[in-house]
């Protein structure tokens, strides 16, 4: 069996969209029970309570989770409020402890997904389990690693699988803690539409203000659920305080979210017309870009003959400024136009470099 053949019927037992909520970290029994109680009171459609028991941190000497004792608090949450429970596992020891504590859903975090040895260890420890196992995207934008992690789990006969999109690290400063890079997640969804895809807006945003918007964007693209960090007193949280919300805020947020219908029934003809026009425009853009690159080749030959450096900062500045101006005039976003022109410019540099070194 391969990933594309999985039925993943586990998602059907939950109301759509599937909402997983709870604190970033388990801190105390009281904190866990109060958070669970208030989630239950304000959100009748949240079936799964999450909490981090072990917390991988970037630097040492920070709070790295309460450890095994927190699993007892998760059990109390299940017993008192009827939630299914979920936590992150990062090695075989975590898996063993979580299974003994009857945790229902396990997820592999972004820092673990990036390491095939770690994923293999976890997969072997989980071999044959019927528990639901979710895999977060790796910290770096690498689709193959994400898919590979799920394949390693399937290789150990783990078939109740799902994926969590939590965004990707970037050295650039953006409005996000972790850049969504929607296209990578959509490429995943395109290859494996049978694997439930859940958004983690808390880690994408890194703050409370953008959570609803990111979650709705994901639902607009056909995601089936969200994992949202929720704490009884977010401002005093021991980890990731800025991105956690109260159960009451969660309740309001969920009530405002709208799940989109994936079925095009009744709109096929009109949608087909629009898509035909888009395809025609796409082909025109490709042809124009091709013509532009042919001119870049001529410029590259001229620069080579006259020993002129390929990169001309003043020229790039003029192109960029003009592009941003045109973006404003046409109602397109500045960031979008800059991204397009940067990609074209990088390709033009490659074209001219090939000429400079006689690369065929």
Automatic annotation (TrEMBL):
InterPro entries: Aldolase_TIM, Chorismate_II_sf, Class-I_DAHP_synthase, CM_dom_sf, CM_II_prokaryot, DAHP1/KDSA. Keywords: Transferase. It comes from the Bacteria. It holds the Pfam family CM_2. It comes from Chryseobacterium taihuense. Residues 265-356 form the Chorismate mutase domain. SUPFAM superfamilies: Aldolase, Chorismate mutase II. Signal peptide: none annotated. Its EC number is 5.4.99.5. This is chorismate mutase.
């Amino acid at each position: 069996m391969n990933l594309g053949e999985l039925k993943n019927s586990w998602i059907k037992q939950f109301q759509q969209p599937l909402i997983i909520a709870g604190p970033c970290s388990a801190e105390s029994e009281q904190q866990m029970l109060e958070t669970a109680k208030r989630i239950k009171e304000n959100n009748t459609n949240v079936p799964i309570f999450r909490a981090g028991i072990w917390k991988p941190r970037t630097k040492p000497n920070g709070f790295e989770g309460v450890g095994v004792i927190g699993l007892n608090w998760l059990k109390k949450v299940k017993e008192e409020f009827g939630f299914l429970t979920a936590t992150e596992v990062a090695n075989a020891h975590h898996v063993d402890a979580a299974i003994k504590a009857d945790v229902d859903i396990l997820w592999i975090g972004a820092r673990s997904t990036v390491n095939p040895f770690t994923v293999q260890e976890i997969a072997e420890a989980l071999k044959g389990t019927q528990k639901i196992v979710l895999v977060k995207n790796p910290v770096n934008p690498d689709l193959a690693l994400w898919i590979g992690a799920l394949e390693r789990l399937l290789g150990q006969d783990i078939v109740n699988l799902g994926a969590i999109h939590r965004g990707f690290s970037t050295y650039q400063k953006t409005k996000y803690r972790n850049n969504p890079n929607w296209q990578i997640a959509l490429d995943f969804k395109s290859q494996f539409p049978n694997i439930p895809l859940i958004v983690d807006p808390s880690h994408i945003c890194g703050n409370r203000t953008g959570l609803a918007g990111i979650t709705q964007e994901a639902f607009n693209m056909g995601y089936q659920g969200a994992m949202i960090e929720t704490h009884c007193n977010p401002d005093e949280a021991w980890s990731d305080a800025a991105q956690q919300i109260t159960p009451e805020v969660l309740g309001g947020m969920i009530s405002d979210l709208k799940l989109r219908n994936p079925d095009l029934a009744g709109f096929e003809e009109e949608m087909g017309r629009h898509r035909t026009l888009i395809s025609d425009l796409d082909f025109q853009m490709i042809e124009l870009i091709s013509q532009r690159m042919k001119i870049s080749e001529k410029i590259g030959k001229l620069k080579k003959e006259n020993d002129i450096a390929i990169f001309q900062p003043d020229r790039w500045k003029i192109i960029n400024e003009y592009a941003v101006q045109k973006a404003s005039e046409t109602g397109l976003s500045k960031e979008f136009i800059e991204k397009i022109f940067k990609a074209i410019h990088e390709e033009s540099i490659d074209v001219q470099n090939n000429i400079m070194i006689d690369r065929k």
